[in-house]
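Board work, copied verbatim: DUF1471 family stress response protein YhcN-B
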Amino acid sequence: MKNAMIIATLGLASVLSFSAGAAVHQVNAEQAQGLQSMGTVSVSQIGSAPMDMRHELAAKAEKEGASSYRIIEARTGDTWHATAELYK
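↓ predict structure ↓
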């Protein structure tokens, strides 16, 4: 019984570590040089914080299968809007 629990725990840990390693990260213009563009994604929200917008962009980038993204447009005010270019 203990062996089964240890194996299950190790299996779960490896899945979690793979997910953390596969996370999408934000890059700047210099870091984007040489990366292959996959298109863009945009998000708009009313009354959200800049960090919320980054989380939304990262989630959309990950859903599209990107490894990284670069914010190419950001507007603030009553409504936030941001566009990011996705990279493989």
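Strands lie at 25-26, 37-46, 68-75, 79-87.
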